[in-house]
């Protein structure tokens, strides 16, 4: 670890690592080896065993909460850190607000460098575009369903289309539940019923893949 001065006393600049793996132990070994080669102490690596669709990541939350100004968070690859462009942008913005930096080894991205800042700007533009596309697809799906005579009431049928639209909206940190319910014409209870159904389907897919 490197020491930086903050006034009279020095402060240790910390380097943390984050790795995530669903089933392959070999993939995990590759990540941990890369982090070790980058100089991250194994005791400072936070390991997450989770699927890509799981929203709650306790180890990621834990390491993000530890970050202080000038700290570094190392990951093997960006797809090990976030589940979507929107999610990645949210994480990068949180790290930047703390005054810390993100370093992705496979892509050779360091958000403290000029190239890293350029990447963050591009990511923001792409994420905004992705959010607009999600909402456009959601609205288009509702319009098509209404043209076909589908009635959106208090207890709509949990069709694959509705479940997919709810999952897409839920995966967007900038989209609120009330906004999604208004666009889809459903109640909050129907929203969460569709969300639970989608998560169960995703869990079954992960189990089958294992």
From TrEMBL:
CDD domains: SR_ResInv. PANTHER family: DNA-INVERTASE FROM LAMBDOID PROPHAGE, SERINE RECOMBINASE PINE-RELATED. Keywords: DNA recombination, DNA-binding. One of its GO terms (molecular function) is DNA strand exchange activity. This is Recombinase family protein. Residues 14-149 form the Resolvase/invertase-type recombinase catalytic domain. Gene3D superfamilies: Resolvase, N-terminal catalytic domain. Pfam families: Resolvase.
């Amino acid at each position: 670890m490197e020491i930086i001065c903050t006034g009279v006393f020095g402060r240790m600049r910390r380097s943390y690592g984050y790795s995530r793996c669903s089933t392959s132990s070999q993939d995990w070994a590759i990540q941990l080896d890369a982090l070790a080669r980058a100089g991250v102490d194994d005791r400072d690596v936070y390991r997450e065993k989770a699927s890509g669709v799981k929203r709650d990541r306790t180890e990621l939350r834990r390491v993000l909460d530890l970050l202080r100004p000038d700290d570094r968070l190392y990951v093997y690859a960006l797809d090990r850190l976030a589940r979507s462009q929107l999610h990645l942008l949210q994480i990068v913005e949180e790290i930047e607000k703390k005054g810390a930096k993100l370093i992705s080894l496979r892509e050779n991205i360091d958000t403290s460098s000029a190239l890293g800042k350029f990447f963050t700007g591009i990511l923001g533009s792409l994420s905004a575009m992705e959010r607009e596309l999600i909402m456009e697809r959601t609205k288009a799906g509702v319009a098509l369903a209404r043209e076909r005579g589908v009635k959106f009431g208090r207890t709509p049928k949990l069709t694959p289309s509705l479940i997919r639209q709810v999952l897409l909206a839920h995966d967007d940190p900038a989209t609120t539940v009330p906004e999604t319910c208004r666009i889809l014409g459903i109640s909050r209870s129907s929203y969460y019923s569709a969300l639970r159904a989608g998560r169960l389907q995703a869990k079954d897919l992960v189990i089958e893949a294992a």
